[in-house]
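Renewal narrative, Specific Aim 1. Our central claim is that a sequence can be written position by position from structural information alone. The example that follows is taken directly from our test logs and has not been curated for this report. It begins with the structure tokens describing the chain, in the order in which they were read.
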């Protein structure tokens, strides 16, 4: 992740993206489901990509905008996690684990965006 040590948010979003990709691979292989899982992998991996992109933001405003979009993607990922559980694509354990990680990212991003807007 570049020369510098990644921030906690960068590390957690990257680890979450790995979990999302692996979960999607499982769903596609075992459940033969491709539509919801593609939406999930798109939003779940976009979080970290946007946080990474924000590193080279052109201004404080641009940085805040990218972090706000990362927050929206995290919220969307949470939606897909809940939906996949409710249609029996995720078991309770996987659902709770993924949602917990997603909620943690949302909390961190909300805090970061609020600080940036102050």
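The sequence written for that structure reads:
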């Amino acid at each position: 992740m570049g020369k510098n040590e990644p921030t906690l948010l960068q590390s957690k979003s990257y680890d979450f993206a790995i979990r999302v990709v692996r979960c999607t691979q499982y769903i596609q292989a075992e459940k033969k489901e491709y539509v919801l899982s593609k939406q999930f992998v798109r939003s779940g991996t976009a979080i970290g990509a946007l946080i990474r992109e924000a590193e080279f933001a052109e201004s404080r405003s641009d940085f805040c905008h990218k972090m706000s979009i990362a927050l929206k993607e995290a919220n969307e990922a949470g939606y897909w996690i809940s939906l996949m559980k409710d249609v029996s694509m995720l078991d309770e354990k996987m659902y709770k684990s993924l949602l917990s990680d997603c909620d943690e990212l949302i909390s961190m991003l909300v805090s970061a965006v609020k600080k940036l807007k102050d």
